[in-house]
Amino acid sequence: MSVRLILDYVKIDDIYSDGDVENDILKIFKSDNPDVKIRKILEKDPSWPMRYHLSPIRENLLNWYEFPKEATLLEIGAGCGAVTGVFTRKLSRVVAVELSRRRAEVVAERHRDKENLTVYAGNLNDINLEEKFDYVTLIGVLEYAGRYTHTDNPFVDFLKNIKKYLKDGGTIFIAIENKFGLKYWSGVREDHTGKFFDSIQGYPEYDGIRTFGKKEIEDILKEVGFGRIDFYYPLPDYKLPIEIFSDKYLPSAKHEISRSVFPSVDYAQQRDYLFDEHLAMNEIVKNEKFDFFANSFLIVASL
After folding, report:
1. What pTM was estimated for this model as a whole?
2. Termini Cα distance of the chain
3. In terms of DSSP bridges, do strands 296-302 and 228-235 run parallel, antiparallel, or are they unpaired?
4. CATH superfamily of 4-302
5. Alpha-carbon gap, residue 198 to 180, rounded angstroms
6. Which tens digits make up the pLDDT trace of 205-223?
7. CA dist., res. 302 & res. 298, Å (int)
8. Where do the domains of the chain lie?
9. Is residue 211 within 8 Å of 193, Cβ to Cβ?
């Protein structure tokens, strides 16, 4: 194994986990021919955690980005390493931090031959990382800041803390749900609380987890000190992205959004279908409000 796995900072094991399915995933990557086994699993309509952690579609989020080969990257909240491979192929050094020991072990087994990868298990606040990086990623991480940063303004303070790991002129990637995403109007429960219309109503029973609208998160990033902020819009969302638009290339009559990004089945949860999202989004696009209703944001913010 070429990858470095560091377990010295684990205090509470598997504080954030999808449960026993992660043991099954670890066994897959420890076995012979894991790629063959994953392909067979994905062909059989697997559970959401299996699909989320194993699908190669996850890499679409950033496999198109032109990273300088000599650059370095800190991946905070690496999960089971579904996107980590993109970074190890494109950059000279990658440090992945994952709160859960089990998930960190999955990341290390999944990318065991990568000499440019170091994986830490534990809370970033407890890990002594003195180096600075060209890039930092927060993929499905920022929304949990209120749970682990106990201040009056946890989301701002969390990002201020993260900023210290960036070199001058460094860039942060944030992938997060849009609180006003069209799916939440059309019958999907809020991803984190499981309540209908929870984010749209501003999380009336807020318990430390929340997402944001475009203006809200843009204002937070400006307050933290990021000077350039670019928004991208993965569809159907950042978790299994099929198409990605940006403010420089928005959907239009010339490039209508494909119906395929509005699947008839929600893999993550049971849901209602109050209206045809594809038809509704085309009308939203005509009225130039796509960015407000996009289901997810991929934000690229530079100092």
Report:
1. 0.96
2. 36
3. antiparallel
4. Vaccinia Virus protein VP39 (3.40.50.150)
5. 10
6. 999 999 999 999 999 999 9
7. 13
8. 4-302
9. no
Rounded to the nearest 5 percent, the helix, strand and coil shares of the chain are: 35, 20, 45
Q: Which of 249, 236, 248, 230 is nearest to 302 (CA)?
A: 230
Distance separating alpha carbons of residues 182 and 205, to the nearest angstrom: 22
Region of 150 please: left (phi>0), alpha (psi -120 to 50) or beta.
beta
- For residue 63, pLDDT over 60 is answered with yes
Q: How far apart are CA 221 and CA 226, in angstroms?
A: 6
Of 175, 113, 96, nearest in space to 140 by CA:
175
Half-sphere exposure of 210 (CA within 13 A, CB side): 20
Distance in angstroms (rounded) separating the CA atoms of residues 245 and 231:
9
- Given a contact cutoff of 8 angstroms between Cβ atoms, the answer to whether 226 and 172 are in contact is yes
